Amino acid sequence: MKIAVISCIHGNYEALNAVLSDIEDKKADKIYCLGDLVGYGPYPNAVVETIRCLDIPTCQGCWDEDIVAGLNACECSYPSVLAEKRGRLAHEWTNREIYPEVRDYLAQLPIILRDDNLCFVHGSPHSQHEYLMPEMDSFVAMERVIATGADILFCGHTHVPYVRSLNNGQLQVRVKIQSNSEVQNISFMAPLKRIVNAGSVGEPRHGRPNATYVLYDRDGDRITLEEVEYDYQKTCAAIIDKGLPPIFAWRLARGLEFAERAEDPTHICER
């Protein structure tokens, strides 16, 4: 059985269609989506309608949550005030653009999806906004997987695809025995766990404009990071035509994140 995992479409209808076509060509049996259907891109309604029509199981992403609950505008999300201003513009534009039924759909999306020994989240099991970076501490990475009870944790949010294997991780916990207040250290070996990041369909940040997704062959236990070329220039033109910040088109065309990193002591977290 082949499972395709897509994430971070961000209103990029051209990229979504190209990826769905590639998934069909590769004869995947099922598709899971890790959220962020909207935000930054010019076609949020078309993306959501496609996902809904195909009945693709989908997690709620951070942008999906923000459109429903309000923009998570703070230093935690943006590296500079200028980057935050652009994020606000994208949020306000998307908020005006989406249909009421699209907002309702985003509101009811689950945070976590499970399929036997597989778990699907947007950011991490703890939050849609947490980044599971490939270089994160191995103990923390192992904890994130074990917390789900799964063997493979599929995530997105970073827009950069990767596979990380956590082999024979040794974990130690401190347990207080209630009867005599004694504290014991208990160690155990965790079996092979993996974190698989699907990258981004609609806003890649791996240095190329190509859309990315993951194929998991359950029978052979094989994970493949897929990359799909598409006419990204159409999306770039639509971003500009619809009045979104032109920098979104620039970074899409290059497959890069662009954000000025500057300290601003006047910037106050609004979360």
Task: Describe the model.
This protein is of the alpha/beta class. It is 31% helix and 23% strand. It has eight helices and eleven strands. A five-stranded mixed sheet has the order 3-4-5-9-6, covered by helices on one side. Strands 2-1-10-11 form a four-stranded mixed sheet. Helix 3 (62-69) crosses helix 5 (100-107) and helix 7 runs antiparallel to helix 8 (246-254). The model is unreliable at 262-271 (pLDDT under 50).
Q: Which band does the percent of strand residues land in?
A: 15-25%
* Secondary-structure element series: EHEHHHHEEHEEEEEEEHH
Shape: globular
Class inferred from helices and paired strands: alpha/beta
> Care to count the β-strands?
11
Count of domain modules = 1
- Under CATH at level 1, the class stands as Alpha Beta
Largest sheet: 5 strands, mixed
What are the key terms here?
alpha/beta; 271 residues; 5-stranded mixed beta sheet; globular; 31% helix; Purple Acid Phosphatase, chain A, domain 2
Describe the secondary structure blueprint for this structure:
Elements: E1 2-6, H1 13-25, E2 30-33, H2 44-53, H3 62-69, H4 81-97, H5 100-107, E3 113-115, E4 118-120, H6 138-146, E5 152-155, E6 162-166, E7 169-177, E8 182-190, E9 193-197, E10 211-217, E11 222-228, H7 232-241, H8 246-254
Parallel strand pairs: 1-2, 4-5, 5-9
Antiparallel strand pairs: 1-10, 3-4, 6-9, 7-8, 10-11
Helix pairs in contact: 3-5, 7-8
